[in-house]
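User:
Care to share a sequence and structure tokens?

Assistant:
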Amino acid sequence: QLRLVESGGGLVQPGGSLRLSCAASGFTSDYYGIGWFRQAPGKEREGVSCISFSDGTTYYPDSVKGRFTLSRDNAKNTVYLQMNSLKPEDTGLYYCAASSSPSVQATCVYKRGVGSWGQGTQVTVSS
């Protein structure tokens, strides 16, 4: 059974950085990639970064492009989200999720193929 565990959230000042981790176990060939999503109070959950396992293709929406970077450690079955130049609007509960969609853009924009979520880690950007 697939299990995802996020960690690395916390409180950071505007302009600061955080690195989130998503440790996975129980992966099968049904899954093509991992996505990071965030949900702020009163808002819908939105995709912020997605990566393909097969070739490392990534997708970032304009809101985080140039500030967020995905990386993966296949030996540890872990995906990392490096977040730099954080803004107050980046505040939210961050989840990682596995996707059965081969399209990283569809995963991030439409949550296509997303079927398994972690428990989330809180990121708060505030002075």
